[in-house]
Specification:
With about 260 residues, this protein is of the alpha/beta class. It has 2 domains: about 160 residues, MoaB/Mog-like domain (Molybdenum Cofactor Biosythetic Enzyme, Chain A); about 80 residues, Alpha-Beta Plaits, CATH 3.30.70.2860. It has a 6-stranded mixed β-sheet, with helices on both faces. It has a 4-stranded antiparallel β-sheet with strand order 10-11-9-12. The protein has a two-stranded antiparallel sheet with strand order 4-5. The radius of gyration is 22 Å and the shape is elongated. The two termini are about 25 Å apart.
């Protein structure tokens, strides 16, 4: 899909717990949808371990290839939360206390701790960031994320990550929103429409036509989803797919198949 007017994005999910299967990532779908609404199509997702060399190398690779890089995970208070210091290393800048983050967190814990949850050394890590970082507010648990260059560093906890993203979103300059439309045909095998679908894709090179077979207790079928920045082209492509499905004996229905 070619959206030459749109900036592009990559998401880096940082965390051994995701790679081990202990934690299921819940952030990718949210980011893909929200970024599409802003007009920043998500082009790549990588899941990488809490290994400094891997984080540094990967960040430097993808920040050179994409307009925006969003990282999730690894900015908490424990020893394996090393994303922040790795971003500093990737950019070649010091990792040091961020004055605003430090003041914000120290004030928060002095008001709320009651002598129980002080602003200790572990929590101070969450106020230590690469020099030049711009804070991303966090209304849920106070510890902020940050932006450095085109890299946006956010928490891995879904509720906190979403709050951070909504704080960041007004600063993101996107292109035309990504729009989509779908049609599905119960009982129609994916292989039967492949040739005709390829021809439609050729006629609409600016769109992404995705083919998704589905399997339900009530019956199998195939769904076609068209995505792009031109709403009229999306509608026209789906109309052609609908005609194709009908010509092959299917009974196309607009929208996604019921779950």
């Amino acid at each position: 899909m070619a959206e030459h007017l749109n900036p592009t994005a990559c998401v880096l999910v940082v965390g051994n717990e995701v790679l081990s299967g202990r934690t299921q990532d819940a952030n990718i779908q949210f980011l893909a949808l929200r970024l599409g609404e802003i007009g920043i199509p998500l082009r790549e997702v990588r899941i990488i371990p809490d290994v400094a060399e891997t984080i540094i190398t990967t960040v430097n690779e993808v920040r050179a290839r994409f307009d925006h890089v969003f990282t999730t995970g690894g900015i908490g208070p424990t020893h394996d939360d090393i994303t922040s210091e790795c971003i500093a290393a990737a950019f070649g800048v010091p990792w040091e206390p961020h004055p605003d983050a430090w003041e914000r967190m120290a004030s928060y814990y002095s008001r709320t701790s009651g002598g129980i949850a002080e602003f200790n050394t572990a929590r101070q890590r969450m106020a230590t960031m690469p020099r030049g970082a711009i804070l991303i507010d966090n209304e849920i648990s106070i510890a902020p994320g940050f932006t450095l260059g085109n890299v946006h560093v956010m928490a891995g906890v879904p509720r906190i990550m979403r709050a951070m993203f909504e704080s960041l979103a007004p600063r993101l300059r996107g292109g035309p929103p990504i729009v989509s439309a779908a049609v599905h045909a119960p009982g129609l095998p994916e292989g039967k429409i492949a040739g005709g679908l390829a021809a439609i894709q050729t006629r609409y090179p600016e769109l992404d036509l995705g083919s998704y077979p589905y399997y339900r207790a009530a019956g199998n079928g195939v769904a076609i989803v068209a995505k792009g920045t031109d709403e009229q082209a999306v509608a026209a492509a789906i109309a052609e797919v609908t005609t194709l499905m009908s010509s092959l004996g299917g009974q196309p229905m607009q929208g996604e198949p019921p779950s």
